[in-house]
Amino acid sequence: MRAVHRMSLSGVARAAVVLIPGVLCGAVSPARAAPFERAGLIRVPASQYENFVALSRRDRGPDPAVLARGLHAFSRARARHDIRRNILTLIDYRLPSDEKRLWVIDLDAGRVLFHELVAHGEKTGKARATAFSNRMGSHQSSLGTFVTRDTYVGRHGYSLRLQGMDPGINDRAMERAIVMHGADYVSDDFVARYGRLGRSWGCPALPVDAAQPVIDAIKHGSVLFSYYPDPVLERDSRYLR
Q1: What predicted TM-score, i.e. pTM, was given to this entire model?
Q2: Strands 102-106 and 111-116
């Protein structure tokens, strides 16, 4: 059985996080957080969020700015009743494909469950992702907020359907069959041979031995947030406003 990487998030266990719109990095003042507490959104005190960011940097967790956007998207999805589980998956497509750039965070337990390699689409870039699309047949990855749905066994084995929640940005994911699955071109051996991962047709493909445990951890109503500093995402995503 594959070892699961667990990074303790000291000070965040069994707490919730909220980021005020427009404040995508740094501490949240308790006074400004009050309206979100009444709305039942996920939150943490400012001091605990600072501890989380410090630990994230020290243990190679997600970049604080990406984490902040992901938590904000999670809060918006929860407020809209789009989700059923307090699990957040982050993909930071700013990083090259030979680096682990996917994190699965259990917000109830306050820990990182998985930190994995993940592929991008063949038309999104070679070693680095640079171009993203919501178009049919583009073979490009999509950005933004997704909600995980059901699993199935298909041409790539055990797979997870992803519903894109951002109109015009990723809302054709189901139609495009953008799913999470395992692939033999996502491995340290492939990187050692070619200097980068192989590429999908837009799916966030994982190492074969990581696919099932990751999928089982996030399926049925959690949030996956894929990030790149794209102006359309920042401007138009209803989950980042």
Answers
A1: 0.81
A2: antiparallel
